[in-house]
Write a structure and sequence with these properties.
WD repeats: 16-55, 70-102, 135-168, 180-211, 230-261, 339-378
Shape: globular
Distance between the termini: 17 Å
Number of domains: 1
Number of strands: 30
Family: Belongs to the WD repeat CIA1 family.
Pfam family, one: WD40
Number of helices: 1
GO cellular component, one term: cytosolic [4Fe-4S] assembly targeting complex
Strand order of the largest sheet: 1-30-29-28
Strand content: over 45%
CATH architecture: 7 Propeller
CATH class: Mainly Beta
Structural class: mainly beta
Largest sheet: 4 strands, antiparallel
Organism: Arabidopsis halleri subsp. halleri (Arabis halleri)
Radius of gyration: 20 Å
């Protein structure tokens, strides 16, 4: 049955309270789900300088705060991301540092911090399990962090207009593989392609940049810029998300639009025409629809290609691709809108991993994290 005919609603399962400032981002541990016999785990980060780890009970299905990570960052924690193994959590902070936390089951330890002050390399001592490390990084607020599909590289971006790529080495060490400086304003988000080592970044300069290295020497270069001149956004690009296959990308902007981009994965993998180039009239052609609310986040999930977005109007919206052909390409319909999902701006929305009846987590300026379920109206 068509999703538009199912009379669906978004049901609030639980409100997670504990943060004392706005919550910027949520991230599901990719290897935790009841189906695998592991309790689902969710991380949230906040303007209160902390990260909270939430766990769902396998018996009661209620959520509790498992631990609070509060001894590393001194300012807002803007972004958090789990490694593909689920063993490491990276956190990006306005204090100019990126923290790397290891999950030991009953506790989390910060095993390294990537930072620089006045170009001086700092040495940090952490858990007795870890030796001292020599690391450096961004000079300003770190806005976003993302792991590649294999967990071998980590990308960060900053108000200093740069994107850094870090190689994960043995012994919990991190080496700078590349510093990318193509953007002319704050870089808001970095996101690796889900199946290939291609990095995407979006910025206050209204563009999305695509970064790729032809070989293993780490010489990354910008192979495409998606901007207003080639059907891109006309204002700040806030967020980037892919479906699992990586053949669709969704972006959202301060120009009040979502854009859905498509690319030919086979052609990219073959190297015949790696960069999805609008100028040549193929791939990455965007589908555009208006949103009418500023500052929103977006995620595209492979299951039924549902797009979920949260915005500055306190609402959560779900969109699905129309089943009807259009001469202008694919079109998308509003599946449902959850008004007053939060009491303030919705900063982050994320579907839980796995298949079946997934959970949705949202984070807001109201200091709350909420867990939702998509269900048929009774």
């Amino acid at each position: 049955m068509d999703l538009m005919e199912k009379n669906l609603e978004l049901v609030e399962i639980q409100k997670l309270e504990g943060h004392t400032d706005r919550v910027w981002s949520v991230a599901w541990n990719p290897v935790s789900s009841h189906a695998d016999g592991v309790s689902p785990i969710l991380a949230s980060c906040s303007g209160d300088s902390t990260v909270r780890i939430w766990e769902q009970s396998s018996l009661s299905r209620s959520w509790t705060c498992k631990t609070v990570l509060d001894e590393t960052h001194t300012r807002t924690v803007r972004s958090c991301a789990w490694s593909p193994s689920g063993q490491l959590l990276a956190t990006a902070s306005f204090d100019g540092t990126t923290g790397i936390w290891k999950n030991y089951g009953s506790e989390f330890d910060c095993i390294s911090t990537l930072e620089v002050i006045s170009s001086a390399i700092l040495i940090h001592k952490f858990s007795p399990r870890i030796t001292s490390l020599n690391l450096k990084g961004h000079e300003n607020e770190v806005k976003s962090v993302s792991w590649n599909a294999s967990g071998s590289h980590l990308a960060t971006c900053s108000r200093d207009k740069s994107v850094w790529i870090w190689e994960v080495l043995e012994g919990n060490e991190y080496d700078c593989a590349a510093v990318l400086t193509g953007h002319t304003q704050d870089v808001k988000m970095v996101q690796w392609h889900p199946t290939m080592d291609v990095l995407f970044s979006c910025s206050y300069d209204n563009t999305i940049k695509v970064w790729w290295s032809e070989d293993d020497d780490g010489e990354y270069q910008c192979v495409q810029t998606l901007g207003e001149s080639n059907n891109g956004h006309s204002s700040t690009v806030w967020s980037i998300s892919f479906n699992a296959a990586g053949d669709k990308m969704v972006t959202c902007s301060d120009d009040l639009t979502l854009k859905i981009w498509g690319t030919d994965i086979a052609r990219m993998q073959s190297g015949e025409d790696y960069a999805p180039c609008l100028g040549d009239g193929h791939s990455m052609q965007p589908t555009r629809f208006c949103y009418f609310s500023k500052k929103f986040s977006v995620q595209l999930v492979l299951m039924d290609d549902i797009i979920v977005s949260g915005a500055g109007d306190n609402a959560i919206r779900l969109f699905v691709e129309s089943k009807h052909d259009s001469v202008d390409g694919p079109s998308y319909n509003l599946l449902l809108k959850k008004n007053k999902a939060h009491e303030n701006d919705v900063n982050s929305v994320q579907w839980s991993p796995g298949e079946g009846n997934r959970l949705l987590a949202s984070a807001s300026d109201d200091g709350m994290v909420k867990i939702w379920q998509l269900a048929t109206k009774q």
